[in-house]
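Thread: Newbie trying to understand structure tokens

Hi all, I'm a second-year student working on a class project, and my supervisor (Dr. K.) asked me to get a predicted structure for one chain before our next meeting. I've only ever worked with sequences, so writing a 3D structure as a token string is new to me. If someone could post the tokens and maybe explain what I'm looking at, I'd be very grateful. Here's the chain:
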Amino acid sequence: MTDEQALGAPQPSRPDDLPTADEAIEALTDRAGAFYSALMNEHFVLESARGITVSEASSRAALYLTTLSSGLVAFGFLARTDYALGFLMVIIPVVFLLGIFTYERLVETSLEDVAALDAIQRIRAVYSTTLPGAAKYFPRPMGPHGPNEMLPIGHRQSWIGVFFTTATAIAVVNSMVAGAGVAIIVVQSTARSTPSILIGLGTAALLAVLHGLYQEYRYASLRRFLHQTRETG
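---
Reply by user tm_fold:
Sure, no problem. This is what the structure looks like when written as tokens:
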């Protein structure tokens, strides 16, 4: 017998002696307290997830803009050399593809943020029912002038909000990059500058509109999903 056994030290439980997760849940005496504890933990996890999505979106947007600005600076050094056109033919497709990937991920992170915010709002609604009069401490002001954290972001039926997202900002810049590339190709093929500029502008405008329509489609799909979740829940 060891000294610890002689002193009556507790021995580690064997796996066979431990209750299962379902048995532990069934044995809970304070289910209300356990529920609110789980609810607060879920709130914390959702807030952390929102912070991660915002951080990732900022990093990806910064990476794209840094790549674009670096390419423009490099082109400035080569503008008066014979390598300028070749450099543009290489860097523009690279920047454009990076912009497409960045835009798609920015849309994804935005949707993830909206879904997390929707879940947080439901949790706040539970908090407001804990005691009589508690609702005044968890307000949910509606309309364009309410605090950002409490608005139903992503639930608005108007498509105008699509113009004010980080994804749209990157999409517009990337569309201009693509338009510039198309204009360069046309002017090299036809040696006519005015039609080339018009075609480039038209390409940029078309791509910007397509990006906006795609983003609105994704938001509409998320709105339908969240609405169905509330109805089935």
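A couple of things are worth pointing out once you decode it. Helices lie at 3-6, 21-26, 31-78, 84-127, 166-190, 193-232. The chain has one domain: 30-232. Feel free to ask follow-ups in this thread.
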